[in-house]
């Protein structure tokens, strides 16, 4: 049996007081799994990831990390809790070189930074040959690899990623998703927001579908792959649960 590493329990969260975006959202994440969160635009997927990362205040409900209440976590504390967050955009410094980006990510790693850099370059050989290139000159796929390498700098247990394949070619997004899938075999837990539903479902372990800030369906990714309920919710034609 897999252990739950992160539990979001019935949270209400939003950007301004009295205007909740998420209403009673719950998710349970198994250690070492790849969980994908999907749903139409504006469903609250990014808001959910940001709530876990301490970037959006939670007014009701709680978030537990290995049983500890982390509902009031602040973004600067994330690394200490073993969590990395990769935002959808501006997740690398384009005007800096690949090496400078990695050095920034490694700045709090202390005396192990050199060994960690060696590990990361071993894990991402395509970055190791571009160390002196400006990050902005990398292909879209390589930029996402760099963003993930930076997220891995602090050896997190959990990585939150918001649409890492947005704007990538199908081939590049497949490479990014496969790399994330591979990371779970090293024990990292991944929570991924993704628009490439079929690609994500074919690699993920578990899936949650959100719409209108509310949980709709969840289940094993393999069982939701090809299930008509996914496209019905996506196209907005069907809601199992509606706005409260
Ligand atoms: N910074 C913000 N301030 C106020 N409202 C926001 C902000 N970001 C997103 N929203 C609103 O929250 C809702 C959910 O957005 P979001 O979580 O980004 O959806 P998704 O990632 O599923 O497309 C949308 O109605 C959006 O307009
Ligand atoms: Mg989003």
Task: Itemize the secondary structure elements and their pairings.
Blueprint: E1 4-13, E2 22-30, E3 34-38, H1 45-52, E4 58-65, E5 68-69, E6 83-86, H2 98-105, H3 113-123, H4 125-128, H5 140-152, E7 158-162, H6 170-184, E8 189-193, H7 197-203, E9 206-211, E10 214-220, H8 221-224, H9 228-234
Parallel strand pairs: 3-8, 3-9, 6-7, 7-8
Antiparallel strand pairs: 1-2, 1-4, 4-5, 9-10
The structure holds adenosine-5'-diphosphate (ADP) and magnesium ion (MG).
Give structural notes.
The protein is an alpha/beta fold and 244 residues long. It has a domain at 1-74 and 198-244: P-loop containing nucleotide triphosphate hydrolases (Rossmann fold). Helix content is 32%, strand content 25%. The chain has nine helices and ten strands. The strands form two sheets. A six-stranded mixed β-sheet has the order 6-7-8-3-9-10, with helices on both faces. It has a four-stranded antiparallel β-sheet with strand order 2-1-4-5, covered by helices on one side. A hairpin with a 2-residue loop joins β4 and β5. The mean pLDDT is 92. The protein binds adenosine-5'-diphosphate and magnesium ion. Adenosine-5'-diphosphate binds at residues 15, 21, 39, 41-47.
């Amino acid at each position: 049996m897999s252990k739950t590493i992160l539990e979001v329990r019935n949270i209400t969260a939003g950007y301004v007081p009295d205007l909740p975006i998420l209403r009673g959202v719950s998710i349970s994440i198994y250690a070492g799994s790849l969980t994908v969160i999907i749903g139409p635009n504006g469903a609250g997927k990014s808001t959910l990831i940001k709530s876990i990362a301490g970037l959006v205040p939670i007014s009701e409900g709680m978030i537990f990390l290995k049983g500890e209440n982390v509902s009031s976590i602040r973004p600067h504390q994330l690394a200490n809790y073993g969590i990395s967050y990769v935002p959808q955009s501006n997740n690398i410094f384009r005007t800096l070189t690949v090496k400078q980006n990695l050095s920034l990510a490694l700045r709090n790693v202390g005396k192990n930074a050199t060994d960690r850099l060696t590990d990361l370059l071993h894990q991402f050989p395509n970055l190791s040959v571009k160390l002196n290139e400006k990050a902005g000159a990398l292909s879209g796929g390589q930029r996402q690899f760099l963003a993930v390498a930076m997220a891995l700098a602090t050896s997190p247990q959990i990585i939150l990623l918001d649409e890492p394949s947005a704007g990538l070619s199908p081939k590049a997004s497949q490479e990014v998703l496969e790399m994330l899938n591979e990371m779970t075999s090293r024990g990292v837990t991944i929570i991924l927001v993704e628009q490439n539903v079929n690609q994500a479902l074919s690699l993920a372990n578990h899936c949650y579908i959100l719409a209108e800030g509310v949980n709709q369906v969840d289940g094993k990714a393999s069982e939701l792959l090809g299930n008509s309920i996914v496209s019905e919710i996506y196209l907005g034609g069907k809601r199992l649960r509606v706005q409260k």
